[in-house]
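Write out this protein's structure.
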Amino acid sequence: MNFGLDRLLSDDAVRGQLKGRRVALLAHPASVTKDLGHAVDALAACPEIELTAAFGPQHGMKGDLQDNMMESPDYRDPVHGFPVFSLYGEVRRPKDEWMETFDVVLIDLQDLGCRIYTYVTTLLYVLEAAAKHGKSVWVLDRPNPAGRPVEGMTLKPGWESFVGAGPMPMRHGMTMGELGLWFIDRFRLDVDYRVVEMQGWAPEAGPGFGWPLGERAWVNPSPNAPNLSMARCYAGTVMLEGATLSEGRGTTRPLELFGAPDIDARAVIAEMQALAPEWLGGCVLRDMWFEPTFHKHVGKLCSGVQIHVDHPGYDHAAFRPWRVQALGFKAIRRLYPDYDLWRDFPYEYAFGKLPIDVINGGPGLREWVDDAAAGPGDLDAATRPDEAAWEEARRAFLLY
């Protein structure tokens, strides 16, 4: 199997179209070739390609910054000498003067298949800047490790943010190249755009169901994305960033678990199973203990629930991470009606709104959790039309 970067490097005809043009690269630590060479070095070694600038997204080109709203500086590449501009520092959109340093930008970002993952919004911002300045955008496509399934409420008008670029559900089921096509159509962008497609990507095939297990090494696209299990769970567990519960930051299994010092994980799992066993398909919930070394509940023993999606019986089609985590919240609210569940702090530069609502693109999920009379059927009734509408809306832009 070849990713977009591999195709570009191996295809003389494709690579030749960059000759004589100044090239910029938007990348991060997971922007690697099949032999784990970084895109910066691989492209700089091509005589046809003149790299004149690079861009780093959230967590930086180096992928060194752990948390949200930790900003990366601009710097010069210590080996190749060109400037590296931060799209998660002083600004989140490219500055006008930065756009004058190149003719075509190559975007080589490993995504996790979730609307809230900020590389999606960075893609849109770069497309908008390229349309304004008459620049070309090439996406060197990579797999969506969460595969094709769709889940979650559609972002509501007025709830756009850096973790919500447009009206899509939490789990979008598209690649970055495909999302670029959708953005261009949705926002009517006049931009020279090309997807360097993958070869041999089979998102419905096991055991990876989106990620080519056994063929490609996993490299963290962000510090707390250490493996495929996290990528599968992320469209649900990311909601924990808006909750007082730990999502496992400060442990070796971030965003695959949730817990706190003052809950009973066994009771939570039993309540989840009693409320909506049909939402728990494909995964196994296991009660466990953990003590975060940093972040929420640091140094405190937490009773937790780990969501296992790496067992032999894993069912990709049945696993619905957004509903699993929603059910976890609901179970805690039923067991502990007065639990201080929702965090209140500025989240990804969306001020004056609860983080859980920013994450979900509206208040619907939180309102369902907090409404004692609302059951699983109510959330399904509110969500299924959104999911069906997205399945149809994305159809014209799927490349694989």
